[in-house]
Amino acid sequence: MTSEITIRRPDDWHVHLRDGDMLAAVVGHTAHQFARAIVMPNLTPPVVSIAAATAYRGRILAALPAGADFSPLMTCYLTDDADPAEIARGYQERVFAACKLYPAHATTNSAHGVTDIRALAGVLETMQRIGMPLLVHGEVTDRDVDIFDREAVFIERVLAPLVRDFPALKIVLEHITTSEAVAFVADGGAQIGATITPQHLVINRNAIFDGGIRPHAYCLPVAKRERHRLAVRKAAVSGSPKFFLGTDSAPHSVGRKESACGCAGIFNAPFALESYAQVFDEENALDRLEGFASEHGPNFYGLPLNEGSVTLRREDIGVPAAITAGEISLVPFHAGETIGWRFVDETPRPVIGAAPVATNR
Ligand code: DOR
Ligand code: ZN
Description:
Elements: E1 4-8, E2 12-15, H1 20-33, E3 36-39, H2 50-63, E4 71-77, H3 84-92, E5 96-101, H4 121-130, E6 134-136, H5 150-165, E7 171-173, H6 179-187, E8 192-196, H7 198-202, H8 226-236, E9 243-245, H9 254-257, H10 272-282, H11 289-301, E10 309-318, E11 323-325, E12 328-330, E13 338-344
Parallel strand pairs: 2-3, 3-4, 4-5, 5-6, 6-7, 7-8, 8-9
Antiparallel strand pairs: 1-10, 10-13, 11-12
């Protein structure tokens, strides 16, 4: 049995680092495990300009723990008023790595998102021409569509026509959760990829209602039926270059999660690699973890692979019930559970508090 694996330093191709105190509380966890990360732009107000992305990048770098070797890759939040010239300039000046499409009202801070993608033809043509990736939150927002069907309906109504109309546009379908998404990406051209989160590999929708309502298992897109989880797992470990690591780590304070209207998002950054390693191990595919975590993403984005390596050791680790930083308390993915892999690194892990949180268990 493999007791240790060493892989090229990985990247996180989808993360929410937030801002202010929350940024300071969470960024060290991502920087500890990953060399680079695609940083989501859904701040309040959203990151829609070169100036805003440059300033946000500066705040991220300033919040990093001393000695961290981490590069944030910034994204531009698309609105109905998105300006193709600003986007092209931002990409050419290497401020923006990609644009993010949130259908309006699909998720956290998406009120300024796009109401009709067809109105963005000018932006999409420009992105296609310059090779700039479009990152897609793939859910329709129509209240008549069942929440568990919103990804599949998005693929049919929005994504398939988009791919037909912009056949050379690089598209990443983010945080895929369904067999329909797996099939669409697998059957598409090399210009279409997908990110996969730890939670969509580990939980199905039962986890959200396990003996009571479980706000820490709630994210968007919401976890689906078991057969979908199995399809997503198969894609992740398939070795296909179309599928790569994107945690979608999305911290919300414990009070905002455990509420009458709890926020969507799972904070998985502190034990992300351990969680992925466990899945790849369970699928007898540890030899494919490196491709998924460290190669497919940079190859898709046309960026160099990282130098250096990280090691994961087979060893039980207990995930704390909560992680505290100053006034902020966060419940991590796998809280209170044991994971069978340890991330081995010479640099110390950010301080992890152990304040207990309420549980029905
Ligand atoms: O669960 C989610 N949380 N999904 C998203 O798309 C956004 C994210 C957030 O920003 O909290
Ligand atoms: Zn996200």
